[in-house]
Write a structure and sequence with these properties.
alpha+beta, Immunoglobulin-like, Herpes Virus-1, 8 helices, metal-binding, single chain, zinc-finger
């Protein structure tokens, strides 16, 4: 056998990816029932949910580079420019006046996002384009919290620190980048990416988890069962494929995702309990002594963003 074709892998214990739970106050999705044609001329229908007052603003033909630069600004600057209607004004073909919305709890809002003046495919350019066809931004309306937000910069102790950290990690803006079907780029309209902005932090891409179809338990709550044993609830998401499909017990028996067959590099918990604490204790004990035999898994820490 040609030794140059042999690759050696160092099996390591599988350690969960450190994750921080953040609550996203917004959702936005395209309405599946809208016509496939004429969306650039007639507008695109979206469904929005929110759990706090927010502003909705839309921008057509936005320069890609300038958009990402603008989103890295301080939140106060972004909020003020959105409120005044000047955000991205110099870097897009058209922008809408921000609409202030107080959403009903637990209900979605339907909106047709259309340009005030006609937008043609030629104005957006040929593929690959240097501008996004449409960006819809949902930003929290927290003008009344200005004084409270100022206090976050001051030093705090004990419980004050925890409260400050939660505020700093609060998602204040969801930027939805959309492709709109036209005769130059005839691909169906879709959401290209969704970016979240933290109050005092970075910009993160909103990534989806892929789960199998769920069932309903006795309390009418949705439950998704492990695809291997079909007995326990799913408790972890696999990386890098992002399939959430297995329970605690079955995870220890595999080294590949049972759905896509890609190697498991790491994982994170999506369900508290289900052996999480006991498994973490076991991993710590194993790391303090040499393992008797290597584990058949290619797990290592990796940063998503």
């Amino acid at each position: 056998m040609d030794q140059s074709s042999i690759r050696m892998f160092d099996p390591k214990p599988s350690i969960p990816q450190d994750m921080t739970v953040l609550r996203n106050p917004f959702t936005l999705a395209l309405d599946d029932q809208q016509p496939r044609e004429g969306q650039l001329e007639n507008g695109v229908l979206v469904k929005i949910t929110g759990d706090k007052p927010f502003r909705l603003s839309s921008y057509w033909g936005v320069n890609v580079t300038k958009f990402h630069q603008a989103l890295k600004q301080d939140w106060k600057e972004i909020r003020e420019s959105i409120r005044s209607g000047t955000f991205l004004n110099e870097h897009c073909l058209q922008s809408s006046k921000p609409e202030e919305i107080d959403p009903p709890i637990g209900e979605s809002i339907a909106r047709t996002i259309a340009a005030d003046e006609p937008i043609t495919p030629e104005m957006l350019g040929t593929s690959p384009r240097s501008c996004y066809p449409l960006i819809i931004i949902l930003s929290i309306n927290d003008d009344y919290k200005d004084n409270q937000a100022e206090g976050l910069d001051a030093g705090q102790t004990s419980s004050g620190d925890n409260k400050s950290n939660k505020k700093r990690d609060e998602i204040v803006c969801l930027a939805n980048v959309l492709h709109i079907r036209d005769n130059i780029c005839p691909m169906d309209s879709n959401i290209i990416t969704q970016l979240t902005k933290l109050r005092y932090g970075n910009v993160y891409s909103l990534q989806s988890l892929f789960t199998p179809g769920g069932t309903v338990d006795e309390a009418s709550r949705p439950v998704t069962m492990c695809v291997i044993c079909q007995d326990k609830a799913i408790s972890r998401a696999l990386l890098p494929c992002r399939h959430a499909c297995i329970c605690c017990d079955c995870y220890g028996l595999i080294d590949k995702c049972p759905l896509c067959r890609s190697y498991i590099r790491s994982f994170f918990f999506i369900l508290e309990g289900d052996g999480q604490e006991s498994e973490q204790t076991e991993q710590i004990e194993q790391s303090e002594q040499s393992p008797k035999k290597p584990r058949k898994r290619f797990g290592f820490l990796s940063s998503l963003w």
